[in-house]
Each structure stands twice: as structure tokens, then as C-alpha cells.
Amino acid sequence: MKLQIEGQSLRVRIGESELAQLLAGQAVELRTRFALAFTIVCTLRLAPIGEAGFTGQPEAWLIELPDAAVREHASRLPTREGLTFALPTTESGEVLELLFDVDVRDSVRQRRSS
Known about the structure:
By secondary structure, the chain is an alpha/beta fold. The chain has one domain (2-113): Gyrase A, domain 2 (2-Layer Sandwich). Helix content is 24%, strand content 47%. The strands form two sheets. The protein has a four-stranded mixed β-sheet with strand order 1-2-8-7. Strands 3-4-6-5 form a four-stranded mixed β-sheet. β7 (83-88) and β8 form a beta hairpin.
């Protein structure tokens, strides 16, 4: 799993093997140690929900994606298009844009070898 943060945008990109984990009902976890300062753990999982969710603490994030939307997206792979969700923040009208995609190069490679 790769995370990219830019302003109010969080992009989550996974590979085919991580997608297989999600579709099998398992969570995907990323752990990053920032030198001796602190560690952040980000867990990604599917849930029977209609919209994406983001919860947790500064050092432990949980991102939940709608199961149906991810399965539908997976059926269209490989594609450069991902899923986009607008998550409300505590600020009036401001949102966190959550982008989810599967690495298209990995998808092409995996599907050609199948």
C-alpha cells in the first residue's frame, strides 16, 4: 500500500496482491516508522457501507471502503480510473478527498501472466 498526502487529498494505491487480500476479507496494513520520533499504522479494509470512512488517532488510521464499490472497480481492472470519496471534516464545508486505486502497471503485469 502506498499513501500520498497533499493538502486535503489522501491517495491510497494498492497492488494486485493487496487487492486480493481485501477481496478475501482481510485488512491491508502499512506501518511507517518516522526515525526515532513516532510510528504511523494505516489499516485499509472493506466494509458493508455505502460511503468510505476514515477514523483513528494521529498514529493509527483506519480507512474503510465500501465493499460493493471496490468489487465493482476490481471487475474493471486494469484501469487508470480509481474511486473518489469526499469525507467531511470538522471545518465548515471542507472535505478530505480520498482517492483509491489499484496500481495499473501491476494489474497489467498480473493479468498478462495469468
